[in-house]
Amino acid sequence: MTTTAIIVHQMEGRMRLRVPDMRGDVAFFQQASESLEALEDIFSVTTRPLTGSILIEYDGMTVDTLQQWARTQQLFEISEPDQLRHEGSSIAQITQYQMNRIDDMLKQGSEGRFDLLSLLMMMSVGLLINELLNGRLAAGSFALVWYALDAAGINKIRQKTGF
Asked: Residue 48: what pLDDT?
């Protein structure tokens, strides 16, 4: 029976897999590292047998290529996270999972300077400015200001300072 590797994080040039069934198996992770490093597009493989994690840094490789290689080497089958495959998962759980993935990608792509909350805040301010410039300042515009300030953490700052 083939082991399953779950994609827990992926962005351009970087992918983290978890292989929970092999957690603690140093020999498996050493073999996986050596085998994966043989792929031309992979330039770094870091394994953590204690946590069952494999970090792959690559250039130009697709998940399909990795999947085929892992199969031929009899290492593992790649799978999406269980959260998306459970029939009992609510729309809210799936949405939260996807939003967290987007947030992670934004943070890593901007080296921690940008996240989903910042994006939402800037979008709210942009929509408000658009409303002002087009002379359509309506009650909904004030909600945009409130959401932008909330996203910026103004309410938390006010609570801490008593302002």
From this structure: 93
